[in-house]
Design goal:
There is one protein chain. By secondary structure, the protein is mainly α. It has a domain of 204 residues: Rossmann fold, CATH 3.40.50. The chain has 25 helices and 10 strands. The strands form 3 sheets. Strands 3-5-4-6-7-8 form a 6-stranded mixed sheet, sandwiched between helices. The protein has a two-stranded antiparallel ribbon with strand order 1-2. Helix 11 packs antiparallel against helix 12. The protein is globular, with a radius of gyration of 29 Å. The N terminus and C terminus are likely disordered.
Length: 696
C-alpha cells in the first residue's frame, strides 16, 4: 500500500490534491465542490439580476463556513500528525489564491481606467491596491459604506472585501489553532471563539452595520463555525480515523434540510439588518450539508455529480471575475446609451469566459508544488510588483469632471444646516462629489438639537419656520434660509443626512441610539413650544418605502402628529432620480458622454420612478385630508418633455449627484417656496384653510 497521503486544499476555489510522504490519508471529497457551486450560483445570480435572488449574497457566508471547515481539517490533521509547517501553509495559500487574484484585480483596474469615468477609475485603482495587499474590506468599509450603499453598486472590486476577510482569518487562525492544540482539545475553545464572534456580530449589526459586515472580528464566527465542526469530527488521537458518521435517513434529511435552508436564505434574507441573526441561516445550512457529506448520505451523491463539481472547482476564479465584468458592462452600457441590464448580462457572460481562461492558464499552473516551484514563486513576486506599479499609476492619475467647461461648478451649501455635522474630508473627496463645492462648516455642539437645532434669528420672535428631514431637506435649506432672512422670519433646522423625517430616527450619523432618541424628543418638544407658522417636512420619499399604501399610512401618521401644533405643514414632492442614482458623478457622466457623442445625454429616471409618481398622488391625498397642509410640486421642474431628467439650464448644473439638487437646482424652486412661506405666515392669524394648496 502506498505510504503517501492526499490532503484537501482548503480554499475558496476547488479542492486540490497534495501528495506528501507519510501519515494517514485525507480524501478529496467531490461533494464539497458541490457546496461551492451552490454558493457561487447564489452570488452570481444576485449580482446579475438582484431581484431574482434577493438573498443570493449569502453565498459568501457559505464560502466562509466551508473554508473554515477545510482549513481546520488540514491544519488539525497536520498538527496531530506532527507535520505542521507554518511556512508551507502560507506558501500554499500564496500559490493557491494570489495569482488569479492579482490577474483579476489588475485587469479590472486597468480596464476601468480606459473605459469608465475618471473618478471610477481612480477609486477602483485605490481599491485594487488595497485588494492586492488583502485589506480591501477596510478600504471598502471606509469609502463606500454599506454593501448596498449607493456608490457600492458601481465599485468593480466591491466583492474583494470577502477575500480580505478570509486572508486575515488565514493570518491569525493557524497560530491560534497551534497554540490551542498544545494544551486543549480544540473543539471547546473554537466553539467559545465562535460564540464570542457571533455575539459581537449580533451586537454590532444594529449600531455599526458596516463594521459588522466587513470586518473580521464580527465575521470570524462563520469560518470558526466550520473549524469547530472539523475539530469535532477529527479525533484527538492521530492514529484513529476521522470520526465516521454512518449513512442513515436522519443524516440525509439533515443534508437536504441544509440545502433547503441555504436556498431559503438566498430567497428571503433582506439587505437591511444583515449579517445579524439572518446570517445564521446560511451558516447553519452549510454546517448541516457538511455533516451529511461526512455521513455519505443522499446530498453527497447529488453534490458529487459532474456539473456541480466542475462549477465548484472554478468557483474561486468565477467569484474573482464575475462582479468586475458585470459592473464594467453595466457602466459602459450607460455611457453609450444602452440599457444597464444589457451591459450587466454581457459582462456576466464575458466573466465566465475569462474565469475559465484564468482557471486553466493561471490558477492551475501556479499552484503546482512539484519541480520549478521556487521559480514560479519568484515569477509571481515579480508579477505582483509590476501589477502594483501599474495599478498605482491609475490611482494617481489626475481627474477632471468637466474638461470641456460646459457647466459652472455645482455647489451644495446644505451641509451647513446639518445638526450632526458631516464628514467633509471624506465626502468632498469621494467620486460623487469631488467636483462639487462645499462651504466651510463651523463645529457644532454635539447635542445642538437640545438647543433648538440650528437657529437663525432673523426676526425678534421664536422660530416661525422649522425645517425637518433628511439630506433632501438640507438641499432646500439655503433657499429657505435666504427667504426667511429677506422677510425677517426666524427659522430653525432639524435636518441631517440620512435622517428620515419619520419617527423614530434610525441612522448611523448619531453617536448612539440614545442620541437619536434625544433628537426625536427635542424636535417634538420645540415644535410644541414654538407653534411655528410653517413646518417643512422634506425627505427622499422613495427611500425605504415598500408600497404606496405603507407610504400613505406613514405620512398620514407623521402629518397628524404635527398638524394641530403648527400653522401650516409644507410637503415637497421629490425630484426625479437619475438612472444611475448616486452611483456615479453626475456632471462627470454628462461631460464624458459629450466627449464620446458630441451631444448631451438624455438621462432617464431610475427604477423607483413608478413609486415616486404614485407618491405624488399620495401626498396630494394627504394634503386634502388636512386643511393646513400645502404641497409644493418641485418634481415638475426637473422633467424634460420626454420624461427624462432635466439636469441643466445653460451653464447651471442642477444636480449635485444623481438624486440631490445642487444650489442652482434648489434655487429654481425658490418662487414656489417663497409663495408657500408668505401665504402661511400671512394666514396664521386667519383660518388656515383659507390658503389654497399649491398643487399641480
Amino acid at each position: 500500500m502506498s505510504t503517501q497521503r492526499t490532503l484537501i486544499e482548503p480554499a475558496v476555489g476547488s479542492l486540490h490534491v497534495i501528495p506528501q510522504e507519510t501519515a494517514p490519508s485525507m480524501r478529496h471529497v467531490p461533494a464539497l465542490d458541490g457546496i461551492r457551486s451552490l454558493a457561487i450560483l447564489g452570488v452570481f445570480i444576485f449580482h446579475v439580476v438582484p431581484n431574482a435572488l434577493p438573498g443570493g449574497f449569502c453565498g459568501v457566508d457559505v464560502f466562509f463556513v466551508l473554508s473554515g471547515y477545510l482549513i481546520a481539517s488540514v491544519l488539525l490533521h497536520d498538527l496531530r500528525n506532527g507535520r505542521f509547517s507554518m511556512r508551507e501553509f502560507y506558501l500554499r495559500r500564496i500559490q493557491r489564491l494570489v495569482p488569479n487574484a492579482v490577474a483579476a484585480t489588475t485587469f479590472t483596474a486597468l480596464v476601468t481606467g480606459f473605459v469608465l469615468l475618471p473618478s471610477q477609475a481612480r477609486t477602483t485603482a485605490w481599491n485594487a491596491i488595497c485588494a492586492l495587499f488583502e485589506v480591501s474590506n477596510f478600504y471598502i468599509s471606509k469609502s463606500f459604506g454599506g454593501y448596498w450603499g449607493d456608490s457600492a453598486a458601481s465599485a468593480p472590486l466591491l466583492h474583494t472585501w470577502s477575500l480580505g476577510v478570509e486572508e486575515q482569518f488565514y493570518m491569525f487562525f493557524p497560530l491560534t489553532l497551534f497554540l490551542l492544540s498544545r494544551r486543549y482539545r480544540s473543539f471547546l475553545p473554537l466553539a467559545l471563539l465562535t460564540a464570542a464572534s457571533l455575539a459581537l456580530c449580533l451586537f454590532e449589526t444594529g449600531p455599526h452595520p458596516d463594521a459588522a459586515f466587513y470586518l473580521l472580528p464580527a465575521r470570524a464566527w462563520e469560518p470558526l463555525a466550520g473549524a469547530t465542526l472539523a475539530a469535532f469530527l477529527l479525533p484527538a488521537n492521530p492514529h484513529k480515523p476521522q470520526r465516521r458518521l454512518r449513512a442513515s435517513l436522519l443524516f440525509a434529511v439533515i443534508g437536504w434540510l441544509g440545502i433547503a435552508t441555504i436556498c431559503l436564505a438566498f430567497s428571503v434574507v433582506p439587505e437591511r439588518g444583515f449579517p445579524g441573526f439572518w446570517a445564521l441561516l446560511p451558516t447553519i445550512g452549510s454546517a448541516c450539508v457538511i455533516v451529511s457529506i461526512v455521513a455519505h448520505s443522499g446530498p453527497a451523491r447529488f453534490l458529487s455529480t459532474s456539473v456541480p463539481g466542475f462549477i465548484g472547482r472554478i468557483s474561486y476564479s468565477l467569484y474573482l471575475w464575475h462582479w468586475p465584468l458585470i459592473v464594467i458592462g453595466r457602466e459602459f452600457a450607460l455611457l453609450h446609451g444602452y440599457r444597464a441590464l444589457t451591459g450587466s448580462v454581457i459582462g456576466a457572460a464575458l466573466s465566465i469566459l475569462l474565469a475559465l481562461l484564468a482557471y486553466f492558464c493561471i490558477e492551475l499552473p501556479f499552484r503546482r508544488r512539484g519541480p520549478g516551484r521556487r521559480t514560479r514563486l519568484i515569477a509571481l513576486a515579480a508579477i505582483f510588483s509590476v501589477c502594483v506599479a501599474a495599478v498605482a499609476s491609475v490611482a494617481v492619475r489626475p481627474r477632471a469632471a468637466d474638461p470641456f467647461h460646459l457647466f459652472d461648478q455645482p455647489r451644495f451649501s446644505g451641509v451647513a444646516y446639518s445638526v450632526v455635522g458631516w464628514d467633509g474630508k471624506t465626502i468632498a473627496k469621494s467620486a460623487r462629489y469631488y467636483d462639487v463645492g462645499f462651504p466651510p462648516v463651523p463645529p457644532l455642539p454635539s447635542d445642538i438639537w437640545n438647543q433648538g437645532g440650528i437657529i437663525h434669528p432673523w426676526g425678534p420672535s421664536t422660530p416661525r419656520v422649522v425645517v425637518m428631514g433628511s439630506s433632501h431637506a438640507l438641499m432646500y435649506a439655503p433657499v429657505i434660509d435666504s427667504i426667511c432672512r429677506d422677510h425677517r422670519l426666524p427659522v430653525a433646522f432639524f435636518s441631517a443626512d440620512d435622517t428620515s423625517v419619520y419617527f423614530p430616527t434610525t441612522t448611523n450619523h448619531f453617536a448612539s441610539l440614545q442620541a437619536a432618541a434625544g433628537f426625536d424628543e427635542a424636535r417634538r418638544k420645540f415644535v410644541d413650544a414654538w407653534h411655528p407658522d410653517v413646518l417643512f417636512l422634506v425627505d427622499r420619499w422613495d427611500r425605504g418605502e415598500t408600497s404606496p399604501v405603507h407610504f400613505q399610512q406613514s405620512l398620514t401618521r407623521l402629518v397628524a402628529s404635527f398638524s394641530p401644533k403648527v400653522g401650516r405643514i409644507i410637503l415637497i414632492t421629490q425630484p426625479p432620480v437619475m438612472q444611475f442614482g448616486s452611483d456615479l458623478n453626475a456632471r462627470e457622466f454628462v461631460t464624458r458622454y459629450y466627449s464620446l457623442h458630441h451631444q448631451l445625454p438624455q438621462i432617464q429616471t431610475d427604477s423607483h420612478e413608478a413609486f415616486r409618481r404614485s407618491a405624488v398622488s399620495v401626498i396630494d391625498s394627504v394634503a386634502r385630508s388636512f386643511p393646513n397642509v400645502t404641497v409644493i410640486p418641485a418634481d415638475t421642474l426637473f422633467y424634460e418633455k420626454n420624461g427624462s431628467v432635466h439636469y441643466a439650464e445653460g451653464r447651471s448644473f442642477l444636480y449635485a449627484d444623481g438624486d440631490h439638487l445642487s444650489d442652482a437646482g434648489a434655487a429654481t424652486v425658490r418662487g414656489l417656496l417663497q409663495q408657500a412661506i408668505l401665504d402661511a405666515t400671512a394666514s396664521r392669524n386667519t383660518n388656515p384653510s383659507d390658503s389654497a394648496n399649491i398643487t399641480k
